[in-house]
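ok, trying the design again with the full structure, not the truncated one.
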């Protein structure tokens, strides 16, 4: 089974590249479960509706989904779980699926491959995802991560511009937002490797199926910003949830106050943090190497099987 939810089509396109080899194999039956929130999230987003999504995202409060096409009695060999990151947590529609009453029945004991496509801050979202999967009794075998290749200071602006305007490159002076076309194209290698693994029943074991394919290349230098952001989203989210529910006008003055705080943070703390990290990098190499190894797990950043699955 594979989940499907995407606003711009980016994650859907990556998912399509990965599942194509599985769909082309007559021995593999694939169920695509499309997630449809009862109240669809807008795209392009309005400025306030975009901000208004952070309290529930940070607190992982799931929105209602339209009924799933599954009964809960299905017995899948493998679950592919693509998700985007919203405010440093798994996106609300995907969180809603994993917190759905059927998810435990569907995922209990099942091997899961998570596929993340986001700007570049995903490490703590994956920690949250691991907790959600653990609560369902699922076995996380692999994690694939595709990120926007632009520098952090550029994508901090290009991503919101994309999400608010609906255009990947509304201004020529800025790089295009989103995961680059070459990385999306090359994501097919993961599908080819999954197809081969399924043919050999390797999903029944506990070893990753996508090792050696450059599945993840984590950057622990972003961890400090992620930790600060998570704390801030959580605390302000608590305040906003106390003021009102999603979409309620009572929240708006607080959201505007928060955005002023956030922009100040992005203009001051983020560049200073990035500068401090760059300057102190030589003294913290060992710690970063350990963190990188941790966040690259389970699939790892090795590329030794790339030639075998070149596409
Ligand atoms: C409300 C919202 C919050 C987001 N927050 C983050 C984030 O914290 N970290 C990140 O790397 N990307 C973030 N993104 C970018 C998404 O992860 C994703 O790349 C983008 O929305 C395109 O996804 P799509 O496949 O649904 O179109 C956010 C997007 C939205 C809509």
């Amino acid at each position: 089974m594979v989940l499907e939810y995407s606003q711009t089509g980016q994650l859907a396109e990556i998912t399509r590249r990965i599942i194509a080899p599985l769909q082309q194999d007559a021995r593999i039956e694939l169920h695509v479960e499309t997630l449809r929130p009862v109240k669809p999230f807008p795209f392009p987003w309005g400025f306030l509706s975009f901000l208004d999504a952070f309290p529930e995202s940070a607190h992982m409060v799931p929105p209602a989904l339209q009924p799933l096409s599954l009964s809960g009695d299905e017995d899948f060999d493998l679950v592919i779980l693509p998700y985007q990151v919203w405010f440093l947590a798994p996106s609300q529609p995907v969180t809603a699926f994993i917190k759905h009453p059927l998810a435990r029945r569907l995922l209990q004991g099942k091997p899961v491959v998570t596929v993340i496509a986001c700007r570049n801050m995903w490490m703590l979202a994956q920690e949250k995802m691991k907790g959600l999967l653990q609560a369902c009794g699922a076995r996380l075998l692999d994690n694939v991560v595709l990120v926007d290749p632009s520098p952090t200071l550029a994508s901090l602006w290009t991503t919101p511009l994309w999400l608010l305007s609906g255009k990947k490159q509304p201004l020529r002076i800025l790089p295009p937002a989103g995961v680059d076309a070459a990385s999306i194209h090359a994501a097919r290698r993961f599908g080819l490797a999954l197809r081969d693994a399924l043919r050999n029943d390797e999903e029944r074991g506990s070893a990753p199926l996508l090792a050696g394919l450059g599945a993840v290349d984590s950057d622990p230098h972003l961890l400090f910003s992620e930790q600060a952001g998570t704390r801030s989203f959580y605390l302000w989210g608590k305040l906003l949830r106390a003021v009102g529910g999603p979409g309620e006008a009572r929240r708006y003055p607080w959201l505007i106050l928060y955005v002023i705080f956030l922009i100040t943070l992005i203009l001051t703390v983020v560049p200073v943090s990035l500068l401090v990290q760059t300057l102190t990098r030589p003294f913290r190499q060992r710690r970063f190497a350990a963190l990188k190894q941790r966040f690259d797990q389970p699939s790892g950043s090795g590329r030794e099987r790339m030639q075998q699955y070149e596409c």
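Keeping the full-length input from now on. The mean pLDDT is 95.
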